[in-house]
Amino acid sequence: MERAYRAECYRPVSRSLGSVSFDFGPTLLQWMERAAPDTYAAVLAADRASGNAVAMPYHHVILPLSPRRDKTTEVRWGIADFRRRFGREPEGMWLPETAVDHETLDVLAEEAFASRSSRRTR
């Protein structure tokens, strides 16, 4: 199964990442780093060339269904993993299943994104 993922899913996609915004979950990148290092390197290189990668919560959790403490942890861990892998601050965060509520937006603003957003609009 791993061979199919490497050959048919992620490797072909990695060639187009420089022209689209993209995210990979931290747990998938952890697997890719070990099982498909060439594809992992291509993902990192695509972001270095384009800056198109965005962060995501550490696990693929539906944040509006989580208590605030868990939302905060998922966002913090996702940002920390993004910084470690991509060597920069994330400019945004993809929310699993695009699920959002006001509390989730509050957590995102508190943890990372409010100050950068407001600087861009000035």
How would you sum up this structure in a few lines?
With 122 residues, the protein is mainly alpha-helical. The chain is built from five helices and no strands. It starts with a helix and ends with a helix.
Describe this structure in words.
This protein has about 120 residues and is mainly alpha-helical. It is built from 5 helices and no strands. The chain is globular and about 40 Å long. Residues about 115-120 have low confidence and may be disordered.
Task: Reconstruct the topology from this structure.
Blueprint: H1 2-14, H2 26-35, H3 37-50, H4 68-86, H5 102-121
Helix pairs in contact: 1-3, 2-3, 4-5
**Proportion of helical residues:** 55-70%
Q: Give a short account of the largest sheet.
A: none
Q: What multimeric state do the chains show?
A: single chain
- SS-based structural class? mainly alpha
Order of helices and strands: HHHHH
Shape: globular
Mean pLDDT: 88
Notable features of this structure?
disordered C terminus
